[in-house]
Amino acid sequence: MIIAQRIRELRMENHLTQAQLAKMVGCSQPMIVLWEKEVCEPTASAIVRLAEALGCSCDYLLGFDGY
């Protein structure tokens, strides 16, 4: 699942903890863990918030090339 890898990769590049990203996205820290471990996928609205917080496009998070 590309989205899990990209969430983790971008979070690390932005020097964010899971808790910090969760606060920015408006979800719980355990939810970030679930996304990064590929237990579940974020909703469409969460993908939009993740992209904003991580400074990338939704397309990039979903596995398309380019930011």
From TrEMBL:
MF annotations from Gene Ontology: DNA binding; DNA-binding transcription factor activity
Record-linked SMART domains: HTH_XRE
Keyword annotations from UniProtKB, A to Z: DNA-binding
All residue ranges annotated as the HTH cro/C1-type domain in the record: 7-61
InterPro entries: Cro/C1-type_HTH, Lambda_DNA-bd_dom_sf, TransReg_Diox_bact_type
PROSITE patterns (UniProt xref): HTH_CROC1
Keyword Nucleotidyltransferase: no
Pfam families: HTH_3 (PF01381)
SUPFAM superfamilies recorded: lambda repressor-like DNA-binding domains
A Gene Ontology term for the protein's cellular component: cytosol
CDD domains per UniProt: HTH_XRE (cd00093)
Keyword Nucleus set for record: no
PANTHER family: DNA-BINDING PHAGE PROTEIN (PTHR46797:SF24), HTH-TYPE TRANSCRIPTIONAL REGULATOR (PTHR46797)
UniProt name for this protein: Helix-turn-helix transcriptional regulator
Organism encoding this protein: Candidatus Coproplasma excrementigallinarum
